[in-house]
Amino acid sequence: QGADGFAGLDVEKSDFILSFGCALLDGYGSPVRMIQANSRLKDQHGTIVQIEPRLSNTAAKADSWLPAKPGSEADLALAMAQVIIDNGKYDAEFINEHTQGFDSFARMVNDKYTPAAVSEKTGIGAQAITETALQFASAQKPLALYGRGKGQTPGSLKEALAVHALNALVGSINREGGVLAMSAYDYINWPQVETDETAAAGLQAPPMGVADAGSSLSADSINRLIDAVNASPDKLKALLVVESNPCYALPDSDAVQSAFDKIPFVVSFSSFMDETAMNADLILPNHVYLERYEDVPVKAGVVPAVVGLCRPVVEPLYHTRHIGDTIIQIARTLNGGVADAFPWDNYQACLEETLAGDWDLLQEEGLLVRQELQPETRAVFNTPSGKFELANSTIENIYQAGDIAIDGEAGAFPLVLIPYDSIRLTSDYIGSPPFMIKTVSDEVLKGRDVFVEVNPETANLLGLAQGQNALLSSPKGQVEVRVNRNEGIMPGVVAMPRGLGHSADNEFLAGKGVNVNLLLGPVEDPASGLNAAWGIRA
Question: Among 242, 246, 243, which residue's Cα sits nearest to residue 275?
Fold first, then answer.
C-alpha cells in the first residue's frame, strides 16, 4: 500500500474472520480485545475460520478448522484468491478503481494456485478450499488475518502478501470491519543532533552481517548479527541489551549463547535475573513497569491509534534506576556532542517535553487517542500508481521466489516440529509468573517434564505410548520430552509449547520443561531478509 505505519484490524466490526494461524484466544495482538471480539462474533452469529496444523483453543472454538500443513498457508491463501476471482465474487468497484495489477495477479493464481493444484500440498480438500473462499467473499465485512501464534512467530513475506491480497479482493481495505492503514506515530519530534566524525563514520557503516548478506529489503536481522559475531568476534566490542532476553528467546539458543560468550562487554538493563542477564558483564536493572513512567504507542492492530501512559503506582522496591535516567547519565559522562544531544535533567522531564500539551490529558486519562492517526481514506495509497498494488515486478518476484526451505533432511528427520503459543505461558522478555505455571495442564508440563503433541497415527508408527519418554532431535540439537498422543495435531507434525525451559529467573520457572528455541533455527526469507522459519524437521 506504500504506507509507513502499521495495520489496524477492525475485528470489532467484522462479521467473518479468516485466521491464518493467529492465536486469537491465546494472546494474539491485544488478548482481551481479541477475546471480546470473538464473543461479539458469536453473539451476532458471525464466523471464524481457523487455519493451522493443530487444534488450538482458537481452532477448537472456531466455526470451522482447516488443518493445513505447516508452511503451505501462502499457497492456500492464493488458492482462495483464485476461487474468488474465478467465481466473480471480488469487489469489482474496489478492484477497478483502486487496484493495480489485478489482471497479472489473476493470471498467476489461475496458472499455479487452483484448489486442485494446491490440495495435496496444503492437506485441505479442493472442495473445502472452494467453500471457505466463497463464504469469505460472501460476507458483508470479511477480514483475513496474518501472523502465526501471538503474532510473534516468523513467517514469509509471500504469506503476508497472499493473505492481504484476500482483503483487497473483497474490498476490506481502509473500510469498517477490514484492515486500515494506520499512520506511523509521529509525536516524538526531537531536534536533529549534531554528529561528530566518529558518529558520522558509524552511521555510514552497515550493520554487522549486512554487508555480505546481499540486497534483501531488511537490514535489521538479529540473526545476521549473531552469525556475524560468531564468524568475526573481534568486530563487536560491546552490546547493550534492553527489555529483551535474546539468550532465551532467539532461535538456535546454542549459537546465540556462543555469540554472547565472544562479546567482550555485555550490559543488561533487565529487571529480572534472566538468561541474558546471567551472561552479562554488567547489570544496570531498570525499574519494573509498576515503578516507572513510560509512553506506550500501541501497535497491536488497534483502531484508532492509541498512546498509553505507563505510570508508577509504587516506589521502586530495590536499588534500580529508570533506563532513561541511566542513558542520560551515560551521555553526560561522555561530554561534548553526546551530552548536548541529551539536554534533559531526567527521563520524566524528557517525556513531559516530548508529549507537551498532551501530558496533562495523559496523566488524567491514562491514554491518548491520536485523532490525526485515524485510518487513511479508502482511496489513498502512497504507491507509484497511487493504487493498491496487487501485482508489480517486486511482488511477482516475491511470489516466484517460492516457499521458505525448512531446515533438515527429510530422510534423517521425517517429522516437522512446530512451536505453539498458549495464553498461560509468556515466551517473550518477561517469564511466566508462578501462578501461571501452576495453571499449565499436566498434558503440557508435569513436574519438570515437557510434553510434545504427537498424532496417534504418528505415535503408533514410532511405537510411542502416552506419557512415554522420548528423545526429540533436530538439526540444531536434541532434548528429552514426553509424549502426549493427541488427535488434534496433524500426522507427521510434532508440537511443543513456547515459554518453558528457562535456566534462570526464579525457582518456580527455572528448570521446568524445554526451551523450544534449542531445537529451532533461523531461515532467512530471501524477500525480507528476516527470519521466516516457522518450524524445523525433527
Answer: 246
pLDDT above 90 for 143: yes
| 454 DSSP assignment | E
Angle of helix 73-86 relative to helix 102-112, nearest 10 degrees, comes to 110
3-state SS, 295-354, equals: EEECCCCCCCCEEEEECCCCCCCCCCCCHHHHHHHHHHHHCHHHHHCCCCCCHHHHHHHH
Looking at residue 151, its amino acid is: G
Percent of the chain with pLDDT over 70: 96
Contact 352/345 with Cβ under 8 angstroms?
Answer: no
Distances (CA, A) of 89 to 166, 171, 526: 11, 11, 33
Q: Model pTM?
A: 0.94
How far is 505 from 507, CA to CA, in rounded Å? 7
Is it the case that residue 461 has pLDDT exceeding 90? yes
Contact 71, 535 (CB under 8 A): yes
**What's the one-letter identity of residue 238?**
A
pLDDT at 93 over 80: yes
Cell numbers standing for residue 73: 498457508
Residue 198's pLDDT is 87
Q: For residue 195, what are the contacts with CB-CB under 8 A and spacing of at least 6?
A: 203, 337
Of how many residues is the chain composed?
Answer: 538
Q: List all residues 6 or more positions away from 336 whose beta carbon is below 8 Å from its beta carbon.
A: 196
All cell numbers assigned to 201: 563514520
For residue 376, what pLDDT is reported? Answer: 53
Largest Cα–Cα separation, the chain: 69
Task: Judge whether 353 and 324 are in contact, CB under 8 Å.
Answer: no
Cis-peptide into 304, omega within 30 deg: yes
Confirm if 469 and 482 have CB atoms less than 8 A apart: yes
